[in-house]
């Protein structure tokens, strides 16, 4: 229950989609249903099973109807999420396990479904990757719908929202967001969720400000309460005073003018003052993100992560599914190129069936290319899908976590086998398809001269390269102070990889987060990187700083960095160099200073 009005109540969440909005709350409490737990008589069992199936069928009908009613084309692009939900409704494990529980334990359908969810949840909890873990929410959205149908509860008619409102919900299912008239939605805030939850992804691509993970929003906010939300900083103010509203409006004016100014750079070439042209591309996980990538000036997709395809399901994606998704990807980004990375998953980051061998050290375990090499059928199916899509646009294949020559040769041998199969079956694909190796393991960087003979390009994954070189777990907050992109070891490694690659005549891309920070981007340019790939939103500011610089000055900056022996000396030097070189934009340009 929402409590009485409090003035200027600040709550902090996670900024999920940037933008400052002042508006009235529209409260949705749809996820809070109390579940009755009842023991039933043996004679009632089949009736209960039937009641469960009726609720499933009703849920299917509702989702199909929602899908059919979407008129807005931008919103329609996201309707595949409803297909995922329809697939979950057909999931054998979900259906069979619930029915078995009703029959064996003689419990009502709500209780049985709840027990099945607990089991599925445990499997999802073990997933380390935030993006993949978040997909578990789809299961809950679907379950909430089934529960409501079992209980005969009405679904809020959110199609009828009128006047600009800020939607406040415990969580929002994609079905909720897709059926809203988004013209009337000024913002979203939710109790749960992270940066990569559906609400976050959808809001970003629709440019609607959103704050997620607020925990207490639905218990503190009443419907109709005036609210301020800042989708960048994650701040929410309930019942703000005039003074607080004015200060946010001032912040909004400043941000808007910076954004307007920075977006001007999106469509300009990424070229330094002395004429060095760099390809800036986007890292994405869903085809739906391409419009944002294009809007921010991406010249292709430098990293398409394919892990999401394997989630929310008990079975594996078929060759046809791979083909359809990659085909949409290459056709939408055409004439630019898409770089598709083969499955980068393993250790504790996989479907329950494949995570039997509990690994002590999953980051060093059976993951990425190692997993693909062991489960060759899964690998070949993906490769066939990728190759077939290559007939419809421009694409390159990227192999993750390559540690040395043997691995890359094995991966290539499997690729050749798949190509032969396609040729035999007279199925078209790009015979000249380029392949690349991710350089993210120290052994690969040290042997990059050898690896360069085997591939058409390298892509440096600094997220993992830093983790493995410095022995610092990338997701462990206790050692995060040691996670230093400008550590002399990292700079030396990158310099070496670029030298080896250029001697062999192949280009080097970077697709780790490091590329998205303007100061680091300049250093990477000075180190000789040829292509940069980053989250779409960061592209314009990186473009701007590159366009304001000369390649020669970045080279001499890098030379000076090699005179220092510690990461903090280097950081300090770069900071003062940036402050002198870009006095006006320094705050936006220097890593970690963006929100100062
Ligand atoms: C990296 O390691 O830098 C990278 C881009 O891959 P991921 O973050 O997906 O591991
Ligand atoms: Mg990686």
Walk me through what this model shows.
By secondary structure, this protein is α/β, with parallel strands linked by helices. Helices cover 46% and strands 13% of the residues. It has 25 helices and 16 strands. The strands form 2 sheets. Strands 1-8-7-3-4-5-6-2 form an 8-stranded mixed sheet. An 8-stranded parallel barrel has the order 9-10-11-12-13-14-15-16. Helix 9 (198-206) links the parallel strand 5 (185-190) and strand 6. Helix 21 crosses helix 22 (539-547). It is globular. Bound molecules: phosphoenolpyruvate (PEP) and magnesium ion. Residues 440, 461, 463-464 line the site of magnesium ion.
Any key phrases for this structure?
596 residues, binds phosphoenolpyruvate, 46% helix, 8-stranded parallel β-barrel
Briefly characterize the structure:
With 596 residues, the chain is of the alpha/beta class. The protein is built from 25 helices and 16 strands. The structure holds phosphoenolpyruvate (PEP) and magnesium ion.
Q: Which shape, going by the Cα principal axes?
A: globular
Terminal residue distance: 37 Å
Reading side by side through the largest sheet, how are the strands ordered?
A: 1-8-7-3-4-5-6-2
Radius of gyration: 25 Å
Helix/sheet category: alpha/beta
SSE map:
Blueprint: E1 9-12, E2 14-17, E3 20-28, H1 45-69, H2 73-76, H3 80-89, H4 92-105, H5 109-125, H6 130-134, H7 136-151, E4 165-169, H8 174-179, E5 185-190, H9 198-206, E6 210-212, H10 217-220, E7 226-230, E8 235-238, H11 242-263, E9 279-284, H12 290-295, E10 301-304, H13 319-333, E11 337-341, H14 368-374, H15 376-389, E12 394-399, H16 405-424, E13 434-439, H17 442-446, H18 448-451, E14 457-460, H19 462-470, H20 488-503, E15 508-510, H21 518-526, E16 531-534, H22 539-547, H23 551-561, H24 567-581, H25 586-589
Parallel strand pairs: 3-4, 4-5, 5-6, 9-10, 9-16, 10-11, 11-12, 12-13, 13-14, 14-15, 15-16
Antiparallel strand pairs: 1-8, 2-6, 3-7, 7-8
Helix pairs in contact: 1-3, 1-4, 1-7, 3-7, 4-5, 5-7, 13-15, 14-15, 15-16, 21-22, 21-23
């Amino acid at each position: 229950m929402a409590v009485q009005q409090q003035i200027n109540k600040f709550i902090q969440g996670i900024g999920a989609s940037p933008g400052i909005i002042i508006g009235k709350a529209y409260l949705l409490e749809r996820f809070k249903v109390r579940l009755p737990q009842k023991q039933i008589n043996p004679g009632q069992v089949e009736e209960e099973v039937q009641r469960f199936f009726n609720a499933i069928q009703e849920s299917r009908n509702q989702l199909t109807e929602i899908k059919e009613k979407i008129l807005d084309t931008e919103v329609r692009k996201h309707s595949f999420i409803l297909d995922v939900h329809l697939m979950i409704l057909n999931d054998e494990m979900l259906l069979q396990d619930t029915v078995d529980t009703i029959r064996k334990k003689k419990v009502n359908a709500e209780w049985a479904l709840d027990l099945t969810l607990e089991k599925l949840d445990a499997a999802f909890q073990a997933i380390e990757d935030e993006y993949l873990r978040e997909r578990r929410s789809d299961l809950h959205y679907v379950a909430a719908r089934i529960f409501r149908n079992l209980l005969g509860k009405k679904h809020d008619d959110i199609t009828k929202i009128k006047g600009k409102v800020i939607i406040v919900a415990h969580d929002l299912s994609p079905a909720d967001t897709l059926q809203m008239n988004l013209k009337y939605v000024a913002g979203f805030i939710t109790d749960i969720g992270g940066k990569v939850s559906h609400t976050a992804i959808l809001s970003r691509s629709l440019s609607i400000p959103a704050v997620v993970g607020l925990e207490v929003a639905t218990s503190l906010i009443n419907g109709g309460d005036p609210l301020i939300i800042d989708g960048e900083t994650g701040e929410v103010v309930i019942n703000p005073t005039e003074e607080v509203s004015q200060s946010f409006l001032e912040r909004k004016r400043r941000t808007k003018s910076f954004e307007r100014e920075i977006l001007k750079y999106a469509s300009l070439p990424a070229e330094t003052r002395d004429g060095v042209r760099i390809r800036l591309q986007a890292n994405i996980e869903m085809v739906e993100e391409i419009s944002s990538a294009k809007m921010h000036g991406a010249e292709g997709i430098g990293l398409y992560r394919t892990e999401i395809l394997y989630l929310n399901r008990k079975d594996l994606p078929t060759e046809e599914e791979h083909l359809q998704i990659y085909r949409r990807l290459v056709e939408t980004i055409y004439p630019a190129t898409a770089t598709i990375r083969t499955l980068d998953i393993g250790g504790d980051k996989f479907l329950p069936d494949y995570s039997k061998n509990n690994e002590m050290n999953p980051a060093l375990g059976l993951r990425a290319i190692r997993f693909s090499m062991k489960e060759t059928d899964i690998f070949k199916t993906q490769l066939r899908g990728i190759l077939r899509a290559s007939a419809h646009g421009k694409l390159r294949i990227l192999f993750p976590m390559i540690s040395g020559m043997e691995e890359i040769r094995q991966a290539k041998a499997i690729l050749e086998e798949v190509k032969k199969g396609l040729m035999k079956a007279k199925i078209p694909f790009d015979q000249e398809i380029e392949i690349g190796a991710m350089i993210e393991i120290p052994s690969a960087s040290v042997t990059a001269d050898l690896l360069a003979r085997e591939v058409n390009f390298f892509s440096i994954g600094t997220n993992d390269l830093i983790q493995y070189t410095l022995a610092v777990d990338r997701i462990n907050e206790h050692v995060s102070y040691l996670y230093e992109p400008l550590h002399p070891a990292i700079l030396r490694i990158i310099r070496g990889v670029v030298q080896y690659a250029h001697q062999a005549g192949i280009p080097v891309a970077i697709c780790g987060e490091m590329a998205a920070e303007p100061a680091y981007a300049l250093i990477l340019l000075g180190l000789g990187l040829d292509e940069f790939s980053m989250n779409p939103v960061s592209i314009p500011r990186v473009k701007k700083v590159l366009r304001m610089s000369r390649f020669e000055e970045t080279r001499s900056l890098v030379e000076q960095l090699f005179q220092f022996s510690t990461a903090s000396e280097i950081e300090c030097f770069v900071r003062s160099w940036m402050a002198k070189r870009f006095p006006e934009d320094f705050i936006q340009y220097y890593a970690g200073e963006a929100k100062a």
